[in-house]
Amino acid sequence: MTKHHVKGWQAIQDEVLRRIHAREWPPGHVIPNEVDLAQEFGCARATVNRALRALAEEGLLDRRRKAGTRVALHPVTRATVDISVIRQEIEERGQHYDYRLLACDAASPPAPVRATLGAGSSLHVTALHSGDGAPYVFEDRWISLKTTPDARSADFTGISANEWLLAHAPYTHGDIAFSAEAASAQDASLLNTAEGAPLFVVTRTTWDHDCAVTAVRLAYAPGYRIYTRIGAQSDSAG
């Protein structure tokens, strides 16, 4: 066996990717086990495990207990969606950003939100983000004060909850859904559209391990388009 002294799990990931793309390990091929790969690369088994786990999460490897690790027969290309700062999103469009806090109150959330954030008081923040004076997105957010107690004293008149959370509340993962919804009376009034008009809506919950941080509904004004990347890794940072 030829030894390759590779440093770091990312370097091992790159080498495994090279072998897959070069068809040295074709689809369905059972790759060497972690012990053998660690010996080949001159590193700890845990380093190999992290590299293979990352590739499995991307859909390129199929890992099964007792069956070993195979190159996926039908690799899944996964899109990456970043949680962006709305201010930056608008400014990158070349527009002047404007933000208006509508309300910020500690309250008990409705049952569906409470089921996610848990019992106890939460902070309800609503705000309107605009570009060049035109409504861009209506933000309707609940923040868990149990998970993020500092939010109680945050001044959301000068900074949006979206931007404040990304800077002050770390999270480990999130759930996100995209839908088309008919504009409510409140949506229509804020977004300058007709009640019942179709809107692009994002609902998202972010978590710090087992504790929910925030649940938000983002209703975008008509004409909004979303962009994402396919087949590329992203370090996104609610």
Describe this structure in words.
With 238 residues, the protein is α+β, with helices and mostly antiparallel strands. It has two domains: 9-71, Arc Repressor Mutant, subunit A; 82-223, Chorismate lyase-like (Chorismate lyase). The chain contains seven helices and ten strands. It has a six-stranded antiparallel beta sheet. Helix 2 crosses helix 3 (45-57). It is elongated. This is Transcriptional regulator, GntR family.
Rough shape? elongated
Helix content: 25-40%
Strand content: 25-35%
Instruction: Give the class-level CATH name of the largest domain.
Output: Alpha Beta
Work out the radius of gyration: 23 Å
Q: What do we call the CATH homologous superfamily of the largest domain?
A: Chorismate lyase-like
| Poorly predicted parts | 232-237
Structural class, by secondary structure, is alpha+beta
Largest sheet: 6 strands, antiparallel
CATH architecture of the largest domain: 3-Layer(aba) Sandwich
Please state the oligomeric state of the protein chains shown. Answer: single chain
What is the chain-wise order of helices and strands? HHHEEEHEHEEHEHEEE
Number of alpha- plus pi-helical segments: 7
| CATH domain fold name of the largest domain | Chorismate lyase
Number of domains: 2
Spatial sequence of strands, sheet with the most strands: 4-5-6-9-8-7
Terminal CA distance reads: 48 Å
